[in-house]
Amino acid sequence: MVILPGLPRQVVDALTSPSAQARWLGGTATTAAHDDLAFTLSAEGLPAATIQLRPILGAVELHATCDGDAGEWDRRFARLRLYLAARTCPRLHLIVDDLRRSEDFYHLLGWEAVRAYSPDESYRIMVTPGGSILMLAGPGSDVYQHVDAACRELPRNQGLSLLEPGLVAIKERLTAAGHPIESEQVEAWGDRTLKLRDPDGYRVILIEPKRLTDEEIIALYLDGARLVAALQSLSTDQLEAARAEGKWSVRELAHHLVTVELLSIGQLMAGIAEPDKPFRRHPWLPDDYARGLGNATRPLGTDLALFDLTRRHIAGLLAHLPHAWNHVILRDNAPPTTVRNMIHQLATHTLHHLEQIEASLS
């Protein structure tokens, strides 16, 4: 058994007990494991500490805000993150042409190798600063000899989207290494996004959300509903306006926002009512739905009112069940997330498209 230097004894005990091992080794940690670890860490001499554990791709992000030595807590969490990553099955793997080249590239993004599976080192399990766990595998690797079927392959024509801290420093390292960045965007509400390609052509999207309190997140979420409701008063000509040729019209953007909301409500309800229970998420493509639902010409009707009521309903549930913010949503064809992260992402997704609508009307 590996005991990490500097980790409090009771933290090590909590992580290495048979019950804890059963929880962590299965992939995404259960709510009970979250509670156990939070209790143990909070009892470590910083009673004012607030511990947040957010599962992403089967791992956890650990963050503390406290009146004590925040730097020491950050160091402890860094060690815990590596410990947990080395004992957690990744949920996503990338097939790369040159493992060493890919590892060097992802080191620029702050990824760390926590283990190699084979004597010839043809696999790497990597953990990101944001807590995601992924596998890099060389060509011809028999991935499923070492991980279960839950570790899906990322096709090269698809993107890898991760919530990650420290994008300013990541950009500086990429620039110094001469690696191009496709785009960088800082949203009006504070989120930062970097888009780039890795050496094998995988598109990598790094998102650093501005850290908000739950009160700020729900306010942003409800403000988006009120702004969308205001679109009901637009004229037909305004609804047909588009910010550029080939882009969606205001009408299509409004329908898209409602579609995303309705497709997301089932996941949110499942996460609130039955955390840690797998949810079968139907894969969909926005353009296909837009065509199939006739968004280019279909009247908005009651769609915007439905959007507003849906958000008010979710906000009401969270006000009544505040512990549900931390509930885990397990999806069979997408990374695990929490109710908190999903509410935040829906809120900023709406603001992003409202900016496009404003550009179309101007």
The main sheet orders its strands as: 4-5-6-3-7
Calculate Rg over CA atoms: 22 Å
At CATH's second level, what is the architecture of the largest domain? Up-down Bundle
The biggest sheet amounts to:
5 strands, mixed
Counted by DSSP, the helix tally is 12
The chain-level mean pLDDT equals: 77
Level-1 CATH class name of the largest domain: Mainly Alpha
Question: What features would you highlight for this structure?
Answer:
5-stranded mixed beta sheet; 2,3-Dihydroxybiphenyl 1,2-Dioxygenase, domain 1; alpha/beta; disordered N terminus; Four Helix Bundle (Hemerythrin (Met), subunit A)
Can you characterise this structure?
The chain is of the alpha/beta class and 362 residues long. The protein has three domains: 9-85, no CATH class; 92-208, Roll (2,3-Dihydroxybiphenyl 1,2-Dioxygenase, domain 1); 214-361, dinb family like domain (Four Helix Bundle (Hemerythrin (Met), subunit A)), CATH 1.20.120. The chain contains twelve helices and 14 strands. It has helices at 9-16, 18-25, 31-42, 70-85, 99-108, 167-176, 214-229, 236-240, 250-273, 286-292, 303-320, 339-361; strands spanning 50-56, 59-65, 92-95, 112-115, 123-127, 133-137, 152-153, 159-163, 183-186, 192-197, 203-208, 278-279, 328-331, 334-338. Strands 4-5-6-3-7 form a five-stranded mixed β-sheet, sandwiched between helices. Helix 9 (250-273) runs antiparallel to helix 12. It is globular and about 65 Å long. It starts with 8 loop residues before the first helix and ends with a helix.
